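Researcher: Structure prediction, please.
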Amino acid sequence: MPRWIRSNALTVAMLGAFLVFLALQSVFGWQTHNEELAGYGAQPLSWLAYLGTGHFAESVFENWESEFLQMGGYVLLTAYLVQKGSAESKPEDQTDRPEDDERRAKPDSPWPVRVGGLPLAVYRNSLSLALLLIFLGSFVGHLLGGVVDYNEQQALQSGAAPISAWQFLGTSDFWFQSMQNWQSEFLAVGTLIVLSIFLRQHASPESKPVTAAHAETGA
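Model: Predicted structure follows.
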């Protein structure tokens, strides 16, 4: 295995799986959408045309939205809250990490740490900020894709006049789509937090060592 792939294998595997499943989603979504159009007597779309529809955009972004909300929230909450015995939690008595002190900066530390001031203040929270910004972008993508799909559905069903994105934001349909994803994401993370107290996965950094006591907190 080439060294670059070996050193980045986890990222390559995750992004590779993402691209495969996104492509499959587009194919099955295209088939589903064309079946819906056929039910209304409308002309089917080509696969490329489907990629520009609200149906596809909404289905992609509503899932990204929930994923990045969960990850951003998780990063923030684990900075302040603990769960005794969980591999996903920092120890109860650990208020801060000594290595986070900028006075310990080394020549190869990231440049915001060496510069200090505002760059350091932003960098200290850059992971949660980045995840939450991606969440906001996905939220907007879900809203814009959703209103296009909603208007198309309304036009096919009843010939109703289109509504604006702002109006769609106030519909139960939009929030139903969001909540059904948000609740599942936080359930999955909460389950992992609790299960990591009692269960183990050999060699995984997300698990405590097999020999660790259940009450031991942190991986």
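Model: The CA atoms of residues 126 and 176 lie 30 Å apart.
Researcher: Thanks, that helps.
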